């Protein structure tokens, strides 16, 4: 790369965010940093800001403002707080933005960056699940560019022949199967949050780790793939591949199947998007085929992992269903992590919320926001849970 690319990171203190920061620090001549945002981890955000010298550092939670301000006093870095300030951070002029907030809370700031035509590295799959059609239309309208960061979608992006999309037979999304791949339903009933977040291959934030354990992550990724690539829902197949080395595949009409392989390390898909259309060097990551004893594949079990059925049905219904699926899942996962409900209750809450909310059309972001709020309330009521975390609009 010749000129330095200016970068903003939404969710810089999270798992994807810290990997992005570390890649930027490994390539000081290639990048400068414009804005960093977190929810409430002011200590880590301030450390990152002192090293990367952004114009602006923002915490979404106003309660963390005083701490951030104190920690960055005298640095000349502007400090702000609140959801609107996160959106303002996304609006600041940068070439490239990493969307790595977790949940539907990432939708509004990501759209703010789309509107100014930025290149977006998209980790936050929930915003495509909730507002995929609206978001893709905005990207087209505003001349923005979406680069998938989710490992499977980065893999597909790298091997999908967009000039011959009609020659694609299907996309094969790989799934690790998560920590409970071989558990019976009875065993799953007793698992703890600590067991659920212990992913066998990937080191990720708590919410996505639980999603991997229920396989709702793959359900969300099915919907994400539908919006990112010119294929029908029926052309997206899910295959369990416990080693997470083949990150996904594209099968063509002539029988050729192209795959992207790599170690299960998010720095690879993040580096691909950060450097795009060039490739960044990440010398510490090397896949050595002779060190891998085997690559295996299985069909997913719909009985033990009902998330796959629910997500596919929501995608096929369209309209409000994917928004309800996502919102109920966010509430249920949060309740599980806080010890309010059991692991199997997560999908029971999602299914019951979908049953209780009649499907309706979605025409605008206001519709998305209203359905999201209603679904959070419905799911929280089902479990008498007082929180409605991470709404796409407060
Ligand atoms: N982790 C991974 O390897 C992968 C993640 N993804 C997707 O990327 C996204 C981020 O995942 P991950 O990094 O694991 O998540 P983490 O929980 O590790 O990090 C989330 C980040 O978002 C911030 N945040 C949380 N809630 C809010 C909010 N309401 N408003 C503003 N900021 C908020 C957090 O701040 P704070 O630290 O202050 O709480 C943190 O910076 C998710 O959508 C996930 O599905 C996709 C593929 C792989
Ligand atoms: C790293 C990444 O992209 C995650 O979404 C990962 O794929 C989770 O693994 P599974 O959902 O396949 O268990
Ligand atoms: Mn993924």
What's the layout of helices and strands?
Blueprint: E1 5-10, H1 15-26, E2 31-38, H2 42-52, E3 56-59, H3 65-71, E4 78-81, H4 83-91, E5 96-99, H5 107-115, E6 119-122, H6 125-142, E7 145-148, H7 151-159, E8 168-175, H8 185-189, H9 193-196, H10 206-214, H11 216-228, E9 236-240, E10 246-252, E11 257-261, H12 267-275, H13 307-317, H14 321-337, H15 343-356, H16 365-382
Parallel strand pairs: 1-2, 1-5, 2-3, 3-4, 5-6, 6-7, 8-9
Antiparallel strand pairs: 8-10, 10-11
The structure holds NADPH dihydro-nicotinamide-adenine-dinucleotide phosphate, 1-deoxy-D-xylulose-5-phosphate (DXP) and manganese (II) ion.
1-deoxy-D-xylulose-5-phosphate (DXP) is lined by residues 150-152, 175-176, 178, 202, 212, 217-218, 266.
């Amino acid at each position: 790369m010749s000129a330095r690319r200016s970068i903003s990171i939404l969710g810089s203190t999270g798992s994807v965010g810290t990997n992005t920061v570390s890649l930027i620090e490994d390539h000081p001549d290639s990048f400068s940093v414009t804005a960093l945002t977190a929810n409430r981890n002011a200590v880590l955000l301030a450390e990152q800001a002192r090293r990367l010298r952004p114009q602006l550092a923002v915490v979404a939670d106003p309660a963390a403002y005083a701490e951030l301000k104190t920690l960055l006093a005298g640095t000349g870095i502007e400090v702000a707080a609140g959801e609107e300030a996160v959106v303002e951070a996304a609006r600041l002029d940068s070439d490239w933005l990493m969307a790595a907030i977790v949940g539907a809370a990432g939708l509004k700031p990501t759209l703010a960056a789309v509107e100014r035509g930025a290149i977006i590295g998209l980790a936050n799959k929930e915003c495509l699940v909730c507002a995929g059609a609206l978001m893709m239309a905005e990207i087209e309208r505003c001349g923005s560019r979406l680069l998938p960061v989710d490992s499977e979608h980065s893999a597909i992006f790298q091997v999908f022949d967009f000039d011959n999309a009609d020659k694609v037979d299907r996309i094969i999304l790989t799934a690790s199967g998560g920590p409970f791949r071989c558990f019976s339903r009875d065993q799953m009933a007793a698992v703890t949050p600590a067991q659920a977040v212990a992913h066998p291959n990937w080191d990720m934030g708590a919410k996505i780790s639980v999603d991997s354990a229920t396989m709702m992550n793959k359900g969300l990724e099915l919907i994400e793939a539908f919006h990112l690539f010119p294929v029908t829902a029926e052309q997206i197949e899910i295959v369990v591949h416990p080693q997470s080395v083949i990150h996904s595949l594209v099968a063509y009409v002539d029988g050729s199947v192209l795959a992207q392989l790599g170690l299960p390390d998010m720095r690879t898909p993040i580096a691909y998007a950060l450097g795009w259309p060039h490739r960044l060097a990440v010398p510490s990551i090397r896949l050595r085929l002779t060190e891998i004893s085997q690559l295996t594949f299985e069909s997913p079990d719909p009985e033990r992992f009902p998330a796959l059925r629910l997500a596919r049905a929501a995608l096929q219904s369209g309209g409000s269903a994917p928004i309800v699926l996502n919102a109920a899942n966010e509430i249920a996962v949060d309740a599980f992590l806080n010890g309010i409900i059991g692991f199997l209750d997560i999908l029971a809450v999602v299914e019951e919320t979908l049953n209780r909310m009649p499907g309706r059309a979605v025409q605008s972001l206001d519709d998305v926001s209203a359905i999201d709020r209603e679904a959070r309330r419905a799911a929280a009521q089902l479990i008498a849970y007082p929180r409605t975390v991470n709404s796409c609009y407060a």
